[in-house]
Structure formats: structure tokens, C-alpha cells
Design a protein that fits this description.
By secondary structure, this protein is an all-alpha fold. The chain has helices at about 25-60, 70-105, 120-125, 135-145, 165-190, 205-250, 300-310, 315-325, 330-335, 360-365; strands at about 265-270, 275, 285. The protein has 10 helices and 3 strands. Strand 1 and strand 2 (about 275) form a beta hairpin. Helix 1 (about 25-60) packs antiparallel against helix 2 (about 70-105) and helix 1 packs antiparallel against helix 6. The longest helix has about 50 residues, at about 205-250.
Amino acid sequence: MQANRSYPERMPRYVSRPIMHPFESGHLRAQWATILFAILGVVSLILIVSTFAELGLIQKLIDGQHVSQSDLDASDDRQRLINGMLLLFYFVSAVVFLMWIHRAHRNLPSLHARGLRFSPGWAIGWFFVPIFSLFRPYQVMSEIWRGSDPDTDPKNATAWENSPVSPLVGWWWALFLASMIVGNVVLRLAFNAEEPSSLIYTQTEYLNYLKDYRTQDYMYIMGHCIDIVGIVLVIGLVRAVDQRQQRRYAKLTSLSAIVSEGEKATFTGADGGELNCCPQCGKGVPPNWRFCFHCGLDLTDAQMQSSLQSRGMAGSEAATDQSESTGTESESLLQPFSCPHCRIPADRDWEFCPNCGENLIEKRRT
């Protein structure tokens, strides 16, 4: 018994919450993040040098040597200027870095990664949630790293879950937390420093104040040394993820080995309608569908649409074989069924929803 299926001309548009976006390269954002982080590292290095100069003045005062008021004022002005520049570049680089994280995570579904734990919004939102900000950003970056793996099987949308996480991610986050801890210590030292309460104070009070200030500067230098190492790691991390996503996307859009160049562009379905050939699995897909219901490949990208129209299988034979393979099971397969995510009508032998990319095999099991 042959199944006589009729494919709709266009799938209903899913409007409540799109889960797929065409791939948009994050390379420009990665470049800007790299430049800004590099500038931030240079400013941090300048601040370290300036702080050592300030320590020299403090040590002279502790040793009882004369230091002019103009030298002290010049040191204070220099420190304020460099700290202001550091704060500015820190804010701008943090904004660009979060924008890059959002783009990198939003690209994961278009890179054929399913079953993601986080959304692009929460990928940056977890940085600002108390307690969770201590570990969630690491998990987000780990998901981005694994989901961008160019070496996983493109036909398996959950293969990324078994990809290893680079130690680079762990070291970046460990240094980020260490920098936060040292910064907190420096703030506590600044607030707890016992500055002489009046213009008339003892020599002991004055020396204790200078020693506290010296300790604060040493911790300050330590924190910025950690920041510089962390900046080097985050630059390497951004560049590595960007390259992985570019390689992954290139791999998904150049699967010419799966469909040979000599085959025709389209073939005919069981109902006589013309079907495109999925460049990933080589099976028939109606022209206006957004996802291949056999392998889940995202078909919305312009380059992918061009690939669909330039490659194919030999005419009606493939589609006829595909429809005949259902055999006597066609009656049960064509019973009413809908995607549990976007609620469009679906056949029971479809592996993925052609509208939203939902894995229908797992949903049928439950």
C-alpha cells in the first residue's frame, strides 16, 4: 500500500518564539572584542608601572625621606587619569564581549546544535544574577565551545554534547573569579584604611597609614597582573570560538560529498509535486520548508537555498522509493500528529519538524 502524501505549499509561520536564526558571523564582534581587550591590557600594564612609581614615593615617606607636595599631587593625578581610562575601556570591552557571546550562542542552532540548555538572552543574563554568576557563565561558554565544534557529525544534532571543553575555558573563568576576589580585597583595604583623623597625628599613626596604603597598592598590582593574564586568555578564547564557528558553518554549507555534482536539482514527490534535495541527507524536501524533516538541517540560509537549487537526486525514483518504504505502516504513520513545540501538523515518520527543527523522535517516545 503506497502512501499518497500531499505537501503544503508553505508551512505555517511560527510566530510566538522563533528558535532558529540564519547564521550571522560574529567575526566582526570578535575582532572588536579582541582590539578592546588588547587596549585594556595595555592600560592595565601602564597602571601597574604607575602604581610602582607611587610605591616608590610611599617608601620614601616611610623611610623618612623628603617628598615634595607637587610630586605627591602629580602621582595622584596620574593614578586618577589612568584609572578613569581603565574603567572606560573595561566597560566598553565588557559590552562588546557580551554582544559577541549573544551572537555566538544564537548561532548554535543554525550550526545544527539541538538540545541547548541556555538561550542567547540568558547567555549574557547569567553574568548579572547573584550567586549564579559564579558558575553559569562558565557553563554558557562551555556550551558555546562544544556547540561550535567543527568536527562533530553534522547529521547528529546532539553530537556536540559529547565534545570536550577546552582547558582555555576553565582557566579563563578561574582567572576571572580570582580577579574579582582580589578586587574585593582591595576595596576592603581601601575602606578599612585608618587615615589620620586630624591635622595633628602621631608618627605611629602616620606610618601605619602609609603601610596600609602600600599593602593596598601591592594587592592592586597583583589584581591587574591577574587581569592581564585573563585578558590574554579571553582574547584566545574569542578567536578560537570564532574560528570554530566559521569552520563549522563552512562544513555545513559545503557538503558536496553527500550529493554528487551529476545529480539533478529537484525530484518529484509521491503526489507529483516538485521537491528539493537536502544537501545534507540527500532526501526530498518541499521547496518552502524551513527545516529538513529527515535530518533537521536548517534550510533558511540563502547559501543553503542556493545549494538546494543547484544539487539534487535523480527524478522520481528516489521519492517513489521513499514513499514505498513506508509500506503497510503508512496508515499508522499518517494518523493525526502535530509538533509539540510549534503545533503544526506533522507525519509520524518525520524525524524533525520542518518549521521549527524540533526533534520529533524523542517527543513521540514520550
